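User: Modeling request: complex.
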Amino acid sequence: MPELNPKNIGLSASGLLLFRGERCLLNQLALRVAPGEGLVLRGPNGTGKTTLLRVLCGLTLPEEGDVHWKGIAIRQQRDEWQRALGWSGHKAGLKSELTVRENLDFAAALAGRRMGEIPAELGLAECLDLPARVLSAGQQRRSSLARVLLGNALVWLLDEPYSNLDAQGQAYLNACLDTHLAAGGIAVIASHGNAHSALGMTEKTLMNGVLQ
Amino acid sequence: MIAPVWLLLQREMRQSFRRWSDLISPLVFFVVVASLFPLAISPAADVLRQVGPGVLWVAALLSMLLSMNRLFRDDYEDGSLEQLVLAPQPLVLLVLGKVLAHWLQMVLPLLLLTPAVATAYDLPGEATWVLLLSLLLGTPALSLIGGITAALTVGLRQGAGVLAVLLLPLSIPVLIFGSRATDLAVSGMDTTGPLMLLGAMSILAASLAPFGIAAALRVSLD
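Assistant: Request completed. Predicted assembly structure:
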């Protein structure tokens, strides 16, 4: 019975309720992702996948309900949770005047780590010394993923991580996700395409505020 | 505890020295506003000496207001604010680094220009030093209070206007004691009282405002 050990509970949420204006984006939504498991959020545009991810990482507060990490609500253990979390949103979060190296160095230092070989593995070696503003959309996405990898986080919350990536980039991301999950990590990603299909992650569709 | 402050300070410095043109405009604004008053009011030395302290303080305040709007806006728009709020470091210390960087980049150069600008108001030498000291002691409080209002308005489309409406009333105490200290110096009286009050305001702001800024940023990103 792995569920009985709090360390095995992983990431869970219960009774999430969130309104945006008149619309109910999350309606008593519940989910549970155990260590080593990945969850793919699917659904048409505007159903609230990004909002759900933002609620999970703690940026957006739900009107009701809580997100739990290892059985404790994340807002009661914000420091603990943020050490475990790696978040990559719509925006790359790179400072446009700084080079990719400086951006990633900063992210690594925040996590108390060093940059290492990850950028090279992501195919960023040539653009490390370019200012982030001249990067293509795909390179920005790669840099943003490099930041998540650098943080060595247990929980990856990725919003459309495959967007703008070429085939090689998608394959590398899949390999990273595979290793991450095999090592007992957790990943929740929002995705439209089928790039993740080889990974065997659970797929759920967000419809009318609940996961189906 | 100092590491996150230093990390952010370093990043901000590097970032803005690559966009040094942004650093110039608040300075030019300060000099231009301060030099408009002698032209508009009267070139008589005794009039200028009377309005000088107040005018220079208001010019400094408006120049800070101009740069304050940008404090979190770029970070908000490129997504790095999200990353800071979710970073595995205390947000309170990160925002302290941010405000410190802003003060060093935007306010310190302004202080260096003040003695030159003060000559346009025929301030006596000692009063210029008191003016400088009052700005040195008072502007950190303005930066920190401005940080709270900038954090509250960062998500708003009309943020700049709301920022001014929020910040200017809150800066009145600093403004009063700042120009009062210089006023007293012009008439040769003791300035210790207002200067100590300014210092106290900055210390109080430094210990409380980072928590307010952090909370306001979380609300703005919700």
